[in-house]
C-alpha cells in the first residue's frame, strides 16, 4: 500500500512540475522564436504547388498558369537584417514581379552531369555579383534537378542581398510545345539520337515563344557554363540596337567548326565567306562579306561568317510570334532545302539552325559582339586546324561574358 501511495505522490508532483515548466519564461522564449502565423502559412502554401506534367502525387495549385510554370510565391528573407528576397512566381507581366529582364536557363539531368552543379553556381554568382537590376530567372528543369537549382538560387540571392524572381518550367511540357520543330530539325542537326526530351533540349530556343507567357516581349537564353564580367543589363540594352526586322541576337562562333561542316560546300564555292573567320584580313575580303552588318556605332567593316554560337541567344519574342517568315523558315521543307543547298549536316542543335538562317536570311539576326559570348573551347586546335585556329578564336574588345564551352573552366 505504501508503494501505491508513493506512486500517486510521484505522479501528482510530476504533473505540477510540468505545469510550472509550461508556463515558464524558457518555454515562452521558444515559442517567440517560431515564425509568425502569416509567415508560417505562406511558407506552407508555397510547398503546395503543381508541377505540370509531373506525377499525380503532387498537389494541384490554382496558381498554375497553363504554360508549364510551377506556381505559387515563395519569399526567402532574413527576418533580422538581410535585404535579399527571392520569389517563386508564375510570370505576370507588369505585376508584382514586373521586371522584364527575363533570363532563361536549362538545368536538367544534374545527376548525370557531375560539373553542372558547379557551373550553375558560378553562373549565378557572377550574374548577381555584377547585376544592377532586378532579375526574373526562368529555369527549364526536371524533377530530379529542380530542388538543387532552387537551393543554388536561394544561396546566391542571400549572399549578394539581391531581389529576384524565379519561375520553373517542366522540360517535358516545354518539349511537347515544340514537338513539330524537334521532329523537323533533329535529323539534320543532331549527331546522335537520345531520348525525345534530350533532343528537344538542344532546340528549345527555336520555339521559346510558344512556351512562355504570350505577354513576355523579350528574353535571353544563356548556357549554364558562362561567367559574367559585366551587368546583364548591358546585354539587355543590346535589344535597343535591333533593326525593326531582327528577331534574334547571337555572337559569332569562335572556332572553325563550320569550316569543317561546310568542307564540301566550300570546295565547290571557293570564294564563299560561309565558314570563314569573322575577322578577315585584307587578302580575304570580298564583296560577299557585306552580308554581315556591323553593330550600331561600329565603323563599316567587312567580316567573314564563321557561323553563330547559341551560348547566348537574345529573343525578341513579340516579333518572333508575329513573323510569318520565321514560321515558314522553321518548316521541315525549308530547313531541309537550306541544309541541302550547303551540303550541311550539323550536330549542334539550334546553333546549326541559327547559322544557316543567319546566312540565308541575315536581316533576321542581330550580330551580337563576341565580347558577350567569348567562347573558350580549343578542341578544334588539337583536331586538325592548329594552323588557322587562332584566326577564328580571335575576339577584340573587353570581355563581358566568358563561355566555358567544351567543359573549359571560365575565369572567375
TrEMBL record:
GO terms for molecular function: xylosyl alpha-1,3-xylosyltransferase activity. GO terms for biological process: protein O-linked glycosylation via N-acetyl-galactosamine. Pfam families: Glyco_transf_8. One of its GO terms (cellular component) is endoplasmic reticulum membrane. Transmembrane segments: none annotated. It comes from the Eukaryota. This is Xyloside xylosyltransferase 1. It comes from Anopheles darlingi.
Amino acid at each position: 500500500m505504501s508503494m501505491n501511495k508513493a506512486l500517486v505522490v510521484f505522479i501528482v508532483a510530476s504533473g505540477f512540475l510540468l505545469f510550472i515548466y509550461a508556463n515558464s519564461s524558457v518555454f515562452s522564449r521558444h515559442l517567440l522564436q517560431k515564425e509568425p502565423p502569416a509567415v508560417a502559412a505562406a511558407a506552407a502554401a508555397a510547398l503546395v504547388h503543381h508541377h505540370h506534367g509531373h506525377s499525380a502525387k503532387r498537389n494541384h495549385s490554382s496558381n498554375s498558369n497553363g504554360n508549364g510554370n510551377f506556381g505559387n510565391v515563395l519569399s526567402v528573407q532574413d527576418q533580422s537584417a538581410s535585404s535579399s528576397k527571392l520569389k517563386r512566381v508564375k510570370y505576370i507581366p507588369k505585376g508584382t514581379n514586373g521586371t522584364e529582364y527575363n533570363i532563361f536557363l536549362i538545368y536538367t539531368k544534374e545527376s548525370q552531369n557531375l560539373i553542372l552543379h558547379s557551373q550553375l553556381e558560378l553562373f549565378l554568382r557572377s550574374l548577381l555579383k555584377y547585376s544592377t537590376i532586378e532579375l526574373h530567372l526562368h529555369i527549364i528543369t526536371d524533377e530530379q534537378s529542380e530542388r538543387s537549382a532552387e537551393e543554388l538560387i536561394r544561396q546566391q540571392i542571400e549572399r549578394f542581398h539581391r531581389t529576384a524572381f524565379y519561375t520553373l518550367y517542366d522540360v517535358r511540357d516545354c518539349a511537347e510545345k515544340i514537338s513539330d520543330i524537334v521532329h523537323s530539325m533533329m535529323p539534320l542537326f543532331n549527331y546522335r539520337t537520345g531520348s525525345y526530351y534530350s533532343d528537344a533540349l538542344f532546340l528549345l530556343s527555336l520555339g521559346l515563344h510558344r512556351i512562355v507567357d504570350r505577354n513576355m516581349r523579350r528574353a535571353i537564353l544563356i548556357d549554364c557554363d558562362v561567367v559574367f564580367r559585366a551587368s546583364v543589363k548591358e546585354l539587355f540594352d543590346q535589344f535597343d540596337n535591333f533593326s525593326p526586322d531582327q528577331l534574334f541576337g547571337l555572337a559569332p562562333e569562335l572556332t572553325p567548326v563550320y569550316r569543317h561542316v561546310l568542307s564540301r560546300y566550300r570546295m565547290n564555292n571557293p570564294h564563299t565567306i560561309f565558314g570563314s573567320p569573322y575577322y578577315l584580313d585584307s587578302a580575304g575580303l570580298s564583296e560577299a562579306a557585306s552580308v554581315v552588318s556591323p553593330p550600331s556605332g561600329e565603323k563599316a567593316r567587312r567580316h567573314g561568317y564563321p557561323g553563330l554560337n547559341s551560348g547566348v541567344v537574345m529573343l525578341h519574342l513579340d516579333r518572333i510570334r508575329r513573323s510569318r517568315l520565321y514560321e515558314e523558315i522553321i518548316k521541315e521543307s525549308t530547313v531541309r532545302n537550306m541544309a541541302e543547298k550547303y551540303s550541311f549536316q550539323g550536330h549542334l542543335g539550334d546553333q546549326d539552325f541559327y547559322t544557316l538562317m543567319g546566312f540565308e536570311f541575315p536581316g533576321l539576326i542581330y550580330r551580337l559582339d563576341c565580347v558577350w559570348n567569348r567562347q573558350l573551347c580549343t578542341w578544334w586546335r588539337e583536331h586538325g586546324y592548329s594552323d588557322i585556329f587562332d584566326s577564328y578564336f580571335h575576339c577584340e574588345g573587353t570581355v563581358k561574358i566568358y563561355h566555358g564551352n567544351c567543359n573549359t573552366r571560365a575565369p572567375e
